[in-house]
Write a structure and sequence with these properties.
The chain contains 1 helix and 5 strands. The protein is mainly β.
């Protein structure tokens, strides 16, 4: 997976959330995106992260609109 866009499941490779799985909830610009995991970072308070610090690991066909559903959708990627 190369392109990081809305709905992409990503692994954080740098920063305090290193090793955590998130989903991209919105594009900020070409170099940054907003990410959330539904538990620590919710849809109402996503984290802005540079795409160079993210690694794409999958894609959600439809982005859930509730935090609990995002957390559930990411569970297969957490191992």
């Amino acid at each position: 997976m190369g392109q990081i866009e809305k709905g992409t499941v990503v692994l954080v490779t740098a920063g305090k959330e290193k090793g955590s799985i998130f989903v991209v909830v919105e594009d900020f610009n070409t170099r940054q995106v907003w990410i959330a995991d539904g538990k620590r970072r919710k849809l109402q308070n996503p984290r802005k992260k540079g795409v160079k610090h993210l690694q794409a690991v999958g894609r959600l066909t439809e982005l859930p609109q509730r935090d609990r559903l995002i957390w559930k959708s990411l569970s297969p990627y957490r191992g």
